[in-house]
């Protein structure tokens, strides 16, 4: 859901409050990925949440959502090795679990570039990164948001620690599946301690190969994520958000240990299947992404079985109003 419309200083763009206000009828809005530090930025023109100016920018967004009766969780996303020095304020090499390039194409101001070999985080530095998540979470609450979602999915830093081909560390954060999960668990604990577990959600994407990650075969993935979710469950976080690729056996195992809300989104899910996981008892909530992006009144459209606007791919990441706040709502009598 990255939209690349933030200001150069990482504050939300001038139309961000309108964008989120338009979609407040969804009830709970999970924001675009928001970096907790300069090192956390991956793409150009993405928002941050670590300076006073950024806090004030997000306050406008939170106020707009609340005025329309909605709630806002800000997604904290550290991109790790999915970055390029041209896209960050300090222009340093990205940081990652290990010095292994993702070998991904990255859009920069100078065109398409390959992601470079990142710098491996020192063991003593990891506590500082956890502190960045803690600070960003506190900043979200200061800005008036209702909570945060920790992004441990889709190829970014926390997911990189879980993946054996990206994490080849020899310390307590690498090697065994328990060690690879340690960083994610410590971030979750720190954020929950800072703002409350009931204000903290987390997103995972088992076996999702984005960002050049390879988490191994089915049984390896199952073992990794059963351990991770089993260790997260006692924290009683607000929700677990699963980007699901179809391993229903794994999803059912989450259901057995997770006592709070379970959000499930299936890749490529059509309109008719939005509620299928809820009806099957596998989920409590069905997040909407592209449907909500192109339809500010998606709730009304679904209730009335009205047609949906299609996403315009050409305007997803180019900035400006077009394809952002100008998707039409249903005509009203």
TrEMBL record:
Family annotation (SUPFAM superfamilies): FMN-linked oxidoreductases
Residues in coiled coil: none
One Gene Ontology CC term in the entry: cytosol
Record has Transport as a keyword: no
Sequence ranges assigned to domain NADH:flavin oxidoreductase/NADH oxidase N-terminal in this UniProt record: 1-308
Enzyme class, first EC level, given as a word: oxidoreductase
Protein name: N-ethylmaleimide reductase
Lineage, top ranks: Bacteria, Bacillati, Actinomycetota, Actinomycetes, Micrococcales
